Amino acid sequence: MVVVRDIMQTDIVTVPSDMNARQLARKLADEDISGVPVTDGDGELAGVVSQTDLVRLAARGQDVHFVGASHRFESRDRADLDGDPDGDADAGDHDPFGYFLPEESAFSAHGLLDAEPQGRFDTTTVAEIMTSVSYSVTPDMPVQNLADYLARGRIQRAVVVENGRLVGIVTAIDVLRAVAEGNLLR
Q1: β-strand 35-39 against 15-16: which pairing, if any?
Q2: What is the pLDDT averaged over residues 170-174?
Q3: CB-count burial class (<10 Å; 0-12, 13-18, 19+) for 11
Q4: Which candidate among 80, 91, 129, 156 keeps its CA 20 to 30 Å from the CA of 147?
């Protein structure tokens, strides 16, 4: 049986709870990761924080409109969504739900930093936007149970704790990778 220990990441990047949001955004971008465990002043696990938390911070108090899903979907008839018989439609026209944002989007990590040169990204700490860890997984948990936990909770990552100590992190991508590589059949 494959367990969390078999697929978890042990080279863990963490951030302190007193780091500001701008530093966090740079850290996530520099490490090319989407979220990290947060430690308190004593180095104890305090929570997790992700790019989604940064987007929420950027959107706080703003009138945010996503161009794409509703506008493109309503403006095109159903037959157009099924394909492009003439082969002349722009690739973006076949993305009615706006999954692919342009690189210059304000919702990219560096775009968030540049869009707000001073302000809440400098004064908001990670502790203010993180999610507290209310549940962790153990290294010996079967991956099938982990997958169920991630899916039911719509969670992207879980911290792995053993004897009260952070020993790893496991993500939905780690589970998908194990499935793709056939590792769950062992």
Answers
A1: parallel
A2: 93
A3: exposed
A4: 129
The 10 Å Cβ neighbour count of residue 153 is 10
Compute the distance between CA of residue 5 and CA of residue 127 in angstroms, rounded to an integer. 28
Tokens of 175: 């589970």
Largest interatomic CA distance in the chain: 63
Residue 35 · residue 51 · CB < 8 Å = yes
Cβ distance 22 to 117 under 8 Å?
no
How many CB atoms lie under 10 A from the CB of residue 1? 9
E strands, 63-177, are 131-132, 157-162, 165-171
pLDDT-derived band at 40 (thresholds 50, 70, 90) equals confident
Of 172, 145, 177, which Cα lies nearest the Cα of 158?
172
Distance, CA of 89 to CA of 94 (rounded, Å) = 8
- CA angle 25-33-26, nearest 5°? 20
Instruction: Determine the length of the chain.
Output: 186
The DSSP secondary-structure symbol of 137 reads B
State how far the Cα of 75 lies from the Cα of 55, in Å rounded to an integer: 27
Q: pLDDT, tens digit, for every residue of 11-33? A: 999 999 999 999 999 999 999 99
